[in-house]
Amino acid sequence: MTRLSLGGEVRVAKSSKRAGRAAPQFLEDDPSTGYLPGRTWPVVRYGLISLAIAAVLVFAIELIVRGDFAGTVSFFLQPLKPGWTTIVVFALILIGLDAVLGRSHQSLMIVAPLTLSLAFVGHQKSHYLGDPLYPTDFLYARQIFALLPLLVRDRPMTALAMVAGIVAGLSLLVYGWRLWRRKVPSLSHKGRIARLTLAVPLLAFFVSIMDYATFSWTRDRLQIIPIMWDQKENYASNGFALAFALNVPMAHVSVPAGYSDKAIAAIGRSDVTASVPDEKPDIIVVMSESFWDPTKLPGVTITPDPIPNVRALRSGSMFSPEFGGMTANIEFEALTGFSNAFLPAGSIPYQQYVRAPTPSLATFLKSEGYQARAIHPGTNWFWNRGTVYADFGFNDFKSEETLPPMKKRGPLASDAAMTDEIISEADASDEPVFFFAVSLQNHGPYEPNRYYNPTHTVQAPIGQWARDSLLSYAEGSADADRGLERLVEWAKKRSRPTVIAFFGDHLPPLGPVYVETGFLKDNVAPRKEASADAALLHHETPLIIWSNRTGPARDMGTVSPAFLPYHILKTAGISHPYYTGFLGEMRERYRVVDRNLLLTPTGEATADWSRQKEIDPAIRDFRLLQYDMMFGKRHAAPDFFPETVDKVVAHTS
């Protein structure tokens, strides 16, 4: 009994001791504030550890994206820069996710792999295409996977290392996750609620101030300055995470200032009406993948000339709004006569905005009795073309899924095979045809020895890999040039009037070739060029508009793809209230309408025009018309797009 009594006394004493230390003992033992028993200040410790983890993670993200240790350090050494805000936001995300997952610091196993992977992808995109990673890029992730075979063929060892790294990383993550669940105590309900009470309101407030279209006093005090007109500077100044967040709203197009039915009614109407010749000409438009003149590279000689036919027939140049990729954005302008300049930077209309019947050349020409057909030897889902072409009014779209087997040249369907298909379908049609064809053969990357039987030689003071890569590109360009020659020779023999338009969508992604030849300082051209001449050098591609009745159009100069419908229909003898009326008047004022540049027919340049307080009323009207037909109430349809009046469908995006 004594032992029991003594034991009881001991237990009572211990209980009393615990009772006396109830508050501090609760904090030490309760994993709601810290799971390491016996340590003091667990709340402060947990917060400091979370901040330290967030700081290391954000630094790693910026280092990966920037690829520059000194530049990354400089970003964080400036106390008023948004880097410190990013660290706090990441700490709040980690704390909130800890509450959801139920264990301290386990959120790192989700946040770190996800954000570091995004940083790596962002660095690669910036390296190869010149643009940062945008939220909307995930809308076409399927395209990236479709191009993986070409990338693997170009750099097999890099691809193998990436696969090994991914497998090893996932294995380590699974092991660490399971180990953490076994070793670290669960958080109490009280601790989880406390974390959520702290993190959720603050994160919600942060989200509320990230709409770049509205002013935020708090965001301004935090030195988070949306630089949406220059995305490279936007990411450099605000950091990868905050700039990425600022771009989330780009999926929404803001209503232009002054938009109303009265504003649309006030836009000047020309006396141009829709009309076509009695003998309707066939119209064939070929957008040639990455077609450009490679002899423009400094110190490069290619023998024989890879593009003699284009050189002989050239009408002018097309000013591409993109560099090295984003083909769909050039298509959008060339088919609709609308401009990417009036849409959020980094957006892709094919992916985001075309959600209902949208006026295009196909819509108009089909209403005039044409068979509107699109051809692309790739898959129909690429760039969402299957859906978009239907909304543009094409009668049909032949792609890899519906075309007959096409002979390949190198790894992709040849330009010669696509030309055969165009000729065959045009000859078989009793009705006039409008063809829009997008080639595939000369798509990058341009791995050395792409073709086993090259017909050209390249002389240049550059490395062997770059020289062989350039040879692969030159061979593809020569094949595209021969395709144009064949179309022209075929059309010359036809009795039916025929108009052929041929142009490159953008400069090719030649990467190191540009750097080694001195054409560019980096693998890609900057979004914001130092001068209009530099912008023209890096964005002009050859343009031919030719008729078997009148020959090639001449002296067109450099034009935005949005003006191509005007030049094509004018050459064909066709008129339309918007495509030759409104765009014709715009063409008299500007030949290039780009996000960063306006260029008049006489060569006068206006850079950063969209940031100026006073904007040319003609540009304002252009933007209002485009918004009205794509997102608004289509007040302009009866006067500018009469062929769409009976086919109006409410926008669903």
Automatic annotation (TrEMBL):
<dbReference type="InterPro" id="IPR017850">
    <property type="entry name" value="Alkaline_phosphatase_core_sf"/>
</dbReference>
<feature type="transmembrane region" description="Helical">
    <location>
        <begin position="157"/>
        <end position="177"/>
    </location>
</feature>
<dbReference type="InterPro" id="IPR000917">
    <property type="entry name" value="Sulfatase_N"/>
</dbReference>
<keyword id="KW-0812">Transmembrane</keyword>
<keyword id="KW-0472">Membrane</keyword>
<feature type="transmembrane region" description="Helical">
    <location>
        <begin position="84"/>
        <end position="101"/>
    </location>
</feature>
<dbReference type="Pfam" id="PF00884">
    <property type="entry name" value="Sulfatase"/>
</dbReference>
<feature type="transmembrane region" description="Helical">
    <location>
        <begin position="43"/>
        <end position="64"/>
    </location>
</feature>
<protein>
    <submittedName>
        <fullName>LTA synthase family protein</fullName>
    </submittedName>
</protein>
<feature type="transmembrane region" description="Helical">
    <location>
        <begin position="198"/>
        <end position="217"/>
    </location>
</feature>
<dbReference type="InterPro" id="IPR050448">
    <property type="entry name" value="OpgB/LTA_synthase_biosynth"/>
</dbReference>
<keyword id="KW-1003">Cell membrane</keyword>
<feature type="transmembrane region" description="Helical">
    <location>
        <begin position="108"/>
        <end position="124"/>
    </location>
</feature>
<feature type="domain" description="Sulfatase N-terminal">
    <location>
        <begin position="281"/>
        <end position="574"/>
    </location>
</feature>
<keyword id="KW-1133">Transmembrane helix</keyword>
